[in-house]
Amino acid sequence: MLAVLDTLTAAAAVLPANINITPNDSGLPGIGALRTVVGAVMTIGLILSVLALIVSAVVWGFGSNSSNPHLASRGKVGVLISCGAAIITGASVTLINFFWNVGQTVS
Questions:
Q1: Helix (H, G, I), strand (E, B), or coil: what is residue 16?
Q2: Any domain includes 23
Q3: How far, in Å, CA of 23 to CA of 67, rounded?
Q4: Inside any domain, residue 17
Q5: Is residue 36 part of a domain?
Q6: How far is CA 98 from the centre of its chain?
Q7: How many structural domains compose the chain?
Q8: CB within 8 A of 89, min separation 6: which ones?
Q9: pLDDT digits over 80-100, tens only?
């Protein structure tokens, strides 16, 4: 058991104590193209959220006017989900940056 502890202590002494790695914009080719693709996917997500909101509002209205509470409640849920999806899509960059900064404070 003592030999194992001596080996672990020796290994800990060899390993670097302070590692500092940050994101690198020029480390790999195609980072600019990847940013363009991510931006396009965000745009598609926002467009689909608007489409879902419109469809859900129509379902909600149709359910309310036809005295169908199940259909009306499904439309309400769809409106909430589409609004939530738009919020998350729009705030995704800010959320990732926030959690990145929180992660950098952990030591």
A1: coil
A2: no
A3: 55
A4: no
A5: yes
A6: 11
A7: 1
A8: 42, 45, 46, 49
A9: 999 999 999 999 999 999 999
